[in-house]
Amino acid sequence: MIEDRKNLQRVSMAAGTIMGTYWILKFIFFPLGMSMSFFMLVFGVLTLFVPFIGHHLLCLYRDRYSNNNGSIGFIHAFTFCLFMYMYASLLTSVGHLIYFQFIDHGFVLERLQDMFDTVKESPLPGMDKYVEQYQLAIDTYSLLNPVDITLQLVSQNMFYGLLMALPTALIAKRKIKKEQ
Question: Which of 138, 148, 157, 169 is a plausible cystine mate for 144, CB 3.0–4.6 Å?
Fold first, then answer.
């Protein structure tokens, strides 16, 4: 049992490193997408692949590294996914902090404000309450420093990781029937 826990932690760290590296590379397209919509499309498509990569990494763990001969229960699979997404979030936070501390210099905020101003110039009927909420969100975002933004993104990534871990663990769990 102790060996299984060490394996779980070791392999989930490795899988989290793979996922975190993927998230950092995917994040590169986000600020680029603020200027060119094609890159935002690439960012969105790459984001859609995250659960499939997580499922693949869980299946690799289940089939190769767990000490259960290719079987894995829901709790075991869920724990692996949680750890994997937690480690990925922590690694990605380093990339986010570097970007927002040294590279961004308010670029994302300016682009959001520009997009908002464009929408505000040609309002659609019934958009008044949304315009106020969006402006409030931009004003709040402008008060955040790079560490605050990074912490917000870490908690967001962990929350979405929790949400993705549930169906991934349900899909990947497998019990091997004992032969009689």
Answer: 148
